[in-house]
Design goal:
mainly alpha; 4 helices; single chain; globular
Length: 139
């Protein structure tokens, strides 16, 4: 449990730092992380505040797994632990499955830079997060 929780924490920390860097003005990887239609038009136009909220949320997800594994001593009500243990991996499972158009394994648009990276990296990462999270949810 400690190893899997630590792996999730490190993944969430890296994703959090990336989103927070975008919130504070970095553009590294930003364009490639946004789904686009066949004409190259962005399907999402996040603001810096959006990146900050996502980055902070990802950091909280990572901390949750450290707390759940007992690595970080912090009291969370059992009900919250139970719900979060299924909701967090559920979010990433839904992301991996996708919206049936531009995102996830179910996407129809597959020729954009985002779509290629989504197929080879983003969606498999989300599925991996989901699987590890569900495993940890059962212990």
């Amino acid at each position: 449990m400690i190893i899997l929780s630590s792996i999730l924490f490190l993944i969430f920390l890296a994703l959090s730092l990336l989103h927070l860097s975008w919130a504070f003005g970095s553009s590294w990887g930003f364009e490639d992380a946004l789904p686009k239609n066949e004409d190259g038009k962005r399907m999402l136009n996040p603001k810096k505040l959006d990146s900050f909220i996502v980055g902070f949320g990802l950091l909280l997800f990572g901390c949750f797994y450290l707390i759940k594994a007992g690595i970080v001593p912090f009291e969370i009500p059992p009900f919250v632990i139970s719900v979060a243990s299924w909701v967090i991996p559920g979010i990433f499972l839904l992301r991996a499955i996708g919206d049936f158009r531009y995102v996830g394994f179910s996407k129809k648009v597959r020729n954009t830079t985002f779509a290629k990276k989504d197929t080879s990296f983003y969606s498999p990462l989300c599925l991996s997060i989901s699987v590890i999270g569900f495993i940890l949810g059962m212990v």
